[in-house]
């Protein structure tokens, strides 16, 4: 990847002459965009997308805002190597060119001006996006031209037609353009965040296993690719890098079904999460191409007390379905209830959540593994004091499935428990379904944690923050929760509507919740106690109108709005822009029935000021007001197996994702 900076005026004539040599050596040929079409994210009154591909420099496309906008050229024939963007004025600041088909970044820079030419090398795609990341005002793009140029391509940048890319701009803007991408849409890696074709393929292709890349041939290279394509956390957990060590000591562990040492899948995971060395843990793409259940309790099935509790063998403990069949409990929920919630509901058994050490990532991308009954602890505690502190942990793209909720289960089967003053934790893009206890609890002073783009379905007690009023260590709890989907399905509303809560139940600590979606949560979503602080910003609450409890819909909605955030008097709480609507089962909100949540207690400041500038900028760039677009975006991206969110460089822009509208919310 080549990087271009602004050209000082004294060198303009020299560099301009060199650039003219490059352009004159090329035969641009016809503008392919004239044979295709265009679309985009928005358009101001009196403009159209087609104006950018009509060959007329007097007409233009203009978006409604100055950032987060897109104009795309499409259906122009596929293969090309050169793009020219013509802007009226000089409003554009940050921009990117993306392969719309794959999301791969082709080029990026600052400033466009009257004519910016970018040589990409030989590429092929059905649609190319110009992303306007920032501008001084809503820009005017006169033409988005596409050429399959012939002739020499040497330039002042030193790039070549064999893969180097170059760009020039009459406005003197700076750009960094990736090398040529293949028809699959990859681009070479770059210091500004570009993803190489080899990395793109490794991160997205289920047919290329984790160690099959000839280019990414070391653990460090593979783990860097996985870290780069995942992106970075925002908010309090923003420093979490997990198993990636920028210093070069990253280790990759691939969990397989045929371990050379004969270890079970669960034992391999247990070994990999122990200790504090950097370890990025993935699942073999081929071994886990089909749905596969993992249950960490199985590492204790050789224990005599566990076998006695189930009145069964080690083999029956490992395969509880075999046990259920032998005991006459069938294969459905009755089996799960009897095995997990009756026979194993004993605090004296040795089964506990395995503890994750520092510098670990468990990454479930491109696998169909799921965890049954219980998950992991990050750190350890005893009697309210830390006994093991972990830092720098990421859990992502994992699927957790409970065995049904049992109040005060003896084994405390949380899916993720951050405790023991552990910190710098990112819990991202996981799915939690009917968990026995929490999805992600925070206890004993754990702090600097971000939970983002997770999907929780019928989870009764989502996220306790501090388990005792008396533990002053919980004053250091800090969490950011954004773009999570908390869903009660319609078929469980009658049994769970009154009891799904603790989002969070918080004592002493601080939590910032913005841009989250709640579906069919009836009352008392959170509890704020012992001087804790919670800031809600632009969260969307929907209730299927089929569950309306009063004959007058306005009176019914008034009651729901009054009860969602009423348990806040024990601490500090502020809500800005968070609203509740009646909707249908598909989460299409009814704008005629909306209430703002106005409960308040004490004083809560601007918690985002505790974040780095990087986090604040990214949050601002992708912020959505509570409303239909936010609901649709979270529904499309939250949880394992759904679309890449904006954290990832592989993500499509928000407007594109919202426009697809193909993902149901429950």
TrEMBL record:
UniProt KW keywords: Carbohydrate metabolism, Lyase, Polysaccharide degradation, Secreted, Signal
Instruction: Give a yes or no for keyword Lyase in this entry.
Output: yes
InterPro entries assigned = Pec_lyase (IPR002022), Pectin_lyas_fold (IPR012334), Pectin_lyase_fold/virulence (IPR011050), PEL (IPR045032)
| Subcellular location as annotated | Secreted
Q: Which residues form the Pectate lyase domain?
A: 345-547
Gene Ontology process terms (BP): polysaccharide catabolic process
Coarse class of the primary localization is secreted
Q: Is Lyase there in the keyword field?
A: yes
Residue numbers spanned by region Disordered = 150-194
> Span of the secretion signal?
1-25
Q: Name one GO cellular component term.
A: extracellular region
What Gene Ontology molecular-function terms does this entry list? pectate lyase activity
Quote the PANTHER family the UniProt record gives.
PECTATE LYASE 18-RELATED (PTHR31683), PECTATE LYASE 21-RELATED (PTHR31683:SF18)
In the record, the note on similarity to other proteins reads:
Belongs to the polysaccharide lyase 1 family.
Name by which UniProt lists this protein: Pectate lyase
Organism source for this protein? Answer: Microbulbifer thermotolerans
């Amino acid at each position: 990847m080549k990087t271009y900076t602004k050209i000082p005026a004294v060198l303009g004539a020299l560099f301009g002459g060199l650039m003219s040599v490059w352009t004159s050596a090329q035969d641009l040929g016809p503008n392919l965009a004239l044979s295709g079409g265009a679309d985009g994210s928005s358009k101001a009154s009196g403009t159209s997308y087609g104006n950018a591909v009509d060959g007329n420099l007097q007409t233009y496309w203009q978006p409604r805002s100055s950032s987060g906008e897109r104009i795309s050229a499409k259906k122009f024939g596929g293969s090309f190597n050169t793009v020219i963007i013509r802007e009226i004025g000089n409003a554009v600041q940050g921009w990117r060119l993306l392969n719309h088909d794959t999301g791969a970044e082709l080029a990026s820079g600052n400033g466009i001006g009257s004519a910016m030419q970018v040589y990409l090398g030989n590429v092929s795609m059905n649609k190319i996006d110009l992303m306007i990341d920032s501008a001084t005002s809503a820009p005017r793009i006169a033409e988005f031209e596409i050429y399959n140029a012939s002739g020499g391509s040497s330039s002042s940048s030193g790039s070549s037609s064999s893969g180097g890319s170059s760009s020039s701009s009459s406005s003197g803007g700076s750009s960094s353009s990736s090398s040529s991408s293949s028809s699959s849409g990859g681009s070479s890696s770059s210091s500004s965040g570009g993803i190489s074709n080899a990395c793109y393929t490794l991160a997205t292709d289920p047919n290329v296993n984790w160690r099959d890349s000839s280019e990414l041939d070391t653990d460090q290279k593979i783990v860097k690719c996985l870290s780069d394509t995942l992106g970075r956390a925002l908010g309090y957990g923003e420093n979490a890098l997990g198993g990636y060590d920028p210093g070069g000591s990253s280790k990759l562990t691939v969990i397989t079904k045929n371990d050379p040492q004969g270890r079970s899948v669960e034992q391999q995971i247990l070994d990999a999460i122990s200790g504090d060395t950097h370890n990025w843990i993935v699942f073999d793409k081929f071994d886990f191409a089909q749905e596969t259940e993992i249950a960490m309790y199985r590492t204790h099935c050789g224990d005599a007390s566990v076998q006695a509790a189930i009145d069964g063998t080690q083999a029956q403990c490992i395969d509880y379905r075999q046990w259920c069949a032998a005991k006459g409990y069938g294969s459905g929920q009755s089996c799960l209830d009897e095995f997990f919630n009756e026979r194993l509901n004993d605090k004296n058994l040795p089964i506990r959540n395995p503890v994750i050490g520092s510098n670990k990532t468990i990454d479930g991308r491109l696998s169909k593994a799921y965890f049954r009954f219980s998950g992991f602890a990050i750190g350890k505690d005893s009697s309210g004091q830390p006994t093991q502190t972990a830092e720098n942990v990421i859990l992502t793209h994992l699927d957790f499935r409970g065995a049904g909720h049992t109040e005060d289960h003896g084994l405390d089967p949380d899916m993720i428990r951050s405790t023991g003053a552990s910190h710098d934790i990112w819990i991202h893009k996981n799915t939690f379904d009917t968990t026995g206890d929490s999805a992600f609890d925070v206890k004993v002073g754990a702090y600097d944690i971000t939970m983002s783009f997770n999907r929780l379905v019928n989870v009764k007690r989502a996220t306790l923050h501090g388990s005792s009023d008396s533990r002053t260590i919980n004053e250091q709890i800090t969490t950011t929760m954004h773009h999570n989907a908390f869903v009660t399905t319609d078929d469980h509303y009658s049994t769970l509507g009154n009891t799904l809560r603790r989002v969070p139940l918080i004592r002493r600590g601080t939590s910032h919740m913005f841009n989250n979606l709640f579906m069919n949560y009836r009352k008392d979503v959170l509890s704020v106690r012992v001087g804790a602080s919670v800031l809600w910003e632009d969260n969307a609450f929907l209730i299927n109108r089929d569950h309306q409890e009063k004959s007058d819909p306005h009176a019914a909605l008034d009651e729901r709005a009054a009860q969602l955030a009423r348990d806040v008097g024990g601490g500090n709480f502020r809500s800005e822009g968070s609203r509740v609507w009646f909707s249908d089962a598909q989460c299409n909100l009814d704008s005629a029935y909306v209430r703002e949540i106005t409960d308040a207690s004490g004083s809560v400041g601007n918690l985002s000021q505790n974040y780095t500038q990087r986090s604040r900028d990214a949050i601002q760039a992708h912020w959505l007001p509570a409303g239909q677009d936010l609901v649709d975006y979270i529904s499309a991206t939250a949880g394992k197996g759904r679309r890449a969110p904006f954290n990832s460089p592989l993500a499509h822009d928000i407007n594109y994702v919202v426009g697809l509208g193909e993902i149901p919310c429950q």
